[in-house]
Amino acid sequence: MPTAKTAIGFFATSVTLTNGGTAGRLDPGDTVVIQFDQAVNTTGVSVTQICAAVASTTVYLGSTHGTSTCNTGNTAGTLTGINLSSAASKDGAFNATATWTNANRTLTITVGASVMGGTIKVGAGTTTYIPAALSSASGAAAICTTAICKPTTTTAP
Predict the structure, then answer these.
(1) CA torsion angle for 123, 129, 133, 134 (degrees, to 10)?
(2) Which residues pair with 111 in a beta bridge?
(3) Residue 85's beta-bridge partner residues?
(4) How many angstroms separate the CA atoms of 94 and 113, rounded?
């Protein structure tokens, strides 16, 4: 008789959002740290920008932007459920840097300068990390995308 849920594949074990700029805003210096249970194949995972889609309460990690809206593609995944708002109800995009540490088990994304949109305000709430189509460094497993494999955090930048 089963006593615990199991999932096939590897998964993100935690996501942490940390304010490094102005409290209550998505801005330069804020970080997103994602921990994985095993090494990630980083080929094709490029996070040079992030984009905050106000209406869908989603931050696209590794996404580019249009003239006033986010493109929905991403290379590292998304953060959903974030309470986002802007004075003009427009999306906001930022340069970003990504660093892999802990033998490619920890991804730290640091928010850089704004490249589109205005001030993005962030309210408290539960944020869920939804991974992109990542694979393990060994190539033996794809990322688990079921509900039990999506870590949440209540910390807002």
Answers:
(1) 120
(2) 96
(3) 121
(4) 5
Least confident of 14-18, 49-53, 68-72, 149-153: 149-153
pLDDT at residue number 8: 60
Q: How many C-alpha atoms does 19 have within 13 Å on its Cβ side?
A: 13
Residue-wise over 79-109: b if at least 16 C-beta within 10 A, else e?
bbbbebebeeebbbbbebebeeeeebbbbbb
Q: How far apart are the first and last CA of the chain?
A: 43
Looking at residue 150, the DSSP 8-state letter turns out to be: -
Residue entry with tokens 């088990």: 105
More confident residue, 156 or 70: 70
Residues 6+ positions from 142 with CB-CB distance below 8 Å: 9, 10, 133, 134, 135, 136
Instruction: Provide the mean pLDDT of the chain.
Output: 86
Is residue 31 pLDDT above 90, yes or no?
Answer: yes
- Residue 62 has φ and ψ, to the nearest 5°, of 95, 25
CA 97/CA 109 separation, integer angstroms: 6
Give start and end residues of each alpha helix (H) in 22-108. Answer: none
- Spatial separation of the C-alpha atoms in residues 147 and 151, rounded to whole Å: 9
